Amino acid sequence: MMTGDQTPLARLSHAPSWLINQASAHSHRLVAERFAAAGARGHHYRLLAALAEHGPASQAELGRRTGIDRSDVVAALNELAGKNLIVRAPDPGDRRRNIITLTAEGERHLAHLEGVLTQIQDDLCAPLSQAERDELVRLLTRVVDHHAQARTPWAAES
Amino acid sequence: MMTGDQTPLARLSHAPSWLINQASAHSHRLVAERFAAAGARGHHYRLLAALAEHGPASQAELGRRTGIDRSDVVAALNELAGKNLIVRAPDPGDRRRNIITLTAEGERHLAHLEGVLTQIQDDLCAPLSQAERDELVRLLTRVVDHHAQARTPWAAES
DNA sequence: GTGCCAACGTTGGCATCACCAACCATAGGT
DNA sequence: ACCTATGGTTGGTGATGCCAACGTTGGCAC
């Protein structure tokens, strides 16, 4: 996001949107750096996690679960398939679909990324106490839910 | 960032980095949409605000103040100059530098963007009470400061 | 059954943003 | 004079979030 953020802009430095973007940028940097070191990118983790949590699914399903665009899902799955972390098989019951399945190797990789991510959370929230982290999560959850709902009124249940 | 964020990923939905990125995405979308409607982009506001707060400056100075990369400052200033919102004049005391000055029109535009941004803050934090918004700002400020400092130990004072 | 619309996978493209590398001109100190 | 640091500029990279379009296939109505 930025190079040297001494944030000398008084009017901006108290704006939630600015702070959120700053925080996001730092978080993004952490994720990008460490995931890159682990040979992965944000999309990869999201997809693997979705597969682990809800089981095999079509690509469109994965897109909906993870919020990743269909077209981006294709690219990410290509990469994951290239590393044998997932398997793409045609759905016998619907020839339009591919059924994506996590491989054992994919599960191992996911477990690794899980650890990396946990460490990232910790570093990101380093200056906050546990109670403060919980509070931050609570507040952000409210904000995110509010806007997610506004954007996807259809996805009522899940 | 995403299309339909029903966030069905239990393990992710409580991770601060995920929440921050989600919130940032929503905020980013709001900013992009409304700034586009106002004929501006995020960089533009940051630069105009920096000029208004600290007065005319060289491009490198602006980059440091706003955290925008030197090369990106050039492009943004070109656009701003094209709209007569800023003036780029050579520094008589240092022929390497350009002195960037806000024009009256630039100030008007900034004032407008200021209003747009205030509205965005409000929409972004819609689900939160004022006390909660303050708390969110406080927590995020701690996080951002912590990482900004880690990244730019040199920019001690400012 | 035929026809039409919806969903799926895929390709290709666009925009923003953070960032890096390289250039050349100029300052400044030695 | 020389060498280094700084400033403006150009150009390029990569991640991410989207949108548009295509051909294929399913499902439904008629």
What is the terminal-to-terminal distance of chain A? 33 Å
> Whole-number average pLDDT of chain A?
84
| CATH architecture annotation of chain A | Orthogonal Bundle
Radius of gyration computed on alpha carbons of chain A: 18 Å
Give the DSSP E fraction of chain A (strand runs of 2 or more residues): 5-15%
Low-confidence stretches of chain A: 1-7
Order of helices and strands of chain A: HHHHEEHH
Structural class of chain A: mainly alpha
Please outline the major beta sheet of chain A.
2 strands, antiparallel
How many separate helices of chain A? 6
In CATH, the topology of chain A is named: Arc Repressor Mutant, subunit A
- Going by CATH, the homologous superfamily of chain A would be Winged helix-like DNA-binding domain superfamily/Winged helix DNA-binding domain
* CATH C-level label of chain A: Mainly Alpha
- The count of domains of chain A is 1
Please tally the β strands of chain A and state the result: 2
* Morphology of chain A: globular
For the largest sheet of chain A, list the strands in their spatial order.
Answer: 1-2
